[in-house]
């Protein structure tokens, strides 16, 4: 029993230590938004055109309680930092078939008061491009378009905001 607990503790520690690390030990280029069925609150965006900005990519779906709990933070960061160079892009990737409906997604965007761009990723193309496996998931890119931070699930809001501020302060 002790060896099982030690193994579980080691796995938990390893996961916690790597949850915020950039993939493969260093910054990697953020994948382009791909396979997006519909852009809501925005014309289509590309990572290339967002170079020079700090980009927060938020994978979410509107019925996920964990996603709903993170929305106040994501919305707040958008409002606080949009004029300083932060671009928030919500990538709505459905968990259930009814979440593929654009009308349902638009209704949720209105209900939650989301004003930043939302990409409807019904076929999981952008999700797969990022190698994502979680709702919610936040990826931050620096002004060079490289992923330098990621967080899965709820929490770490102060750490995420501190990273946003640090990235905004970096030169291009």
Brief overview, please?
The protein is of the alpha/beta class and 172 residues long. The protein has 5 helices and 7 strands.
Structural features, described:
By secondary structure, this protein is α/β, with parallel strands linked by helices. The chain has a single domain (21-169), classed as Glutaredoxin (3-Layer(aba) Sandwich). The chain starts with a helix and ends with a helix. The protein has five helices and seven strands. Strands 1-7-6-3-4-5-2 form a seven-stranded mixed beta sheet, covered by helices on one side.
Topology readout:
Blueprint: H1 2-18, E1 28-29, E2 38-40, E3 54-60, H2 65-81, E4 86-92, H3 102-112, E5 118-120, H4 125-129, E6 137-141, E7 146-152, H5 157-169
Q: How confident is the prediction overall: mean pLDDT?
A: 89
Low-pLDDT residue intervals, each spanning 5 or more residues = 1-24
Strand order of the largest sheet: 1-7-6-3-4-5-2
Within CATH, the superfamily carries the name: Glutaredoxin
**What's the story with the biggest beta sheet?**
7 strands, mixed
- SS-based class: alpha/beta
Q: Order of helices and strands, N to C?
A: HEEEHEHEHEEH
Q: Return the CATH architecture.
A: 3-Layer(aba) Sandwich
Number of domains: 1
- What would you report as the Rg, rounded to the nearest angstrom? 16 Å
Gap between N and C termini? 52 Å
CATH topology: Glutaredoxin
Helix content: 25-40%
Cα shape: globular
- Summed up, the helix count is 5
* Overall strand count: 7
Report the β-strand fraction as a percent range: 15-25%
| Overall CATH class | Alpha Beta
């Amino acid at each position: 029993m002790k060896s099982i607990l030690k193994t579980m503790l080691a796995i938990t520690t390893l996961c916690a230590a790597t949850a915020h690390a950039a993939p493969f030990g260093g910054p990697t280029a953020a994948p382009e938004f791909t396979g997006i069925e519909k852009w809501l609150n925005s014309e289509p965006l590309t990572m290339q055109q967002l170079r020079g900005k700090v980009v927060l990519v938020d994978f979410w779906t509107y019925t996920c309680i964990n996603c709903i709990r993170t929305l106040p933070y994501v919305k707040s960061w958008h409002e606080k930092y949009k004029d300083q160079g932060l671009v928030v892009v919500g990538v709505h990737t459905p968990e259930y078939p009814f979440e593929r409906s654009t009308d349902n997604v638009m209704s949720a965007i209105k209900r939650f008061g989301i004003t930043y761009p939302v990409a409807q990723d019904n076929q999981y193309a952008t999700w797969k491009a990022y190698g994502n496996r979680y709702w919610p998931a936040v990826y931050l890119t620096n002004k060079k378009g490289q992923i330098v931070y990621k967080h899965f699930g709820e929490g770490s809001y102060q750490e995420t905001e501190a990273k946003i501020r640090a990235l905004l302060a970096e030169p291009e």
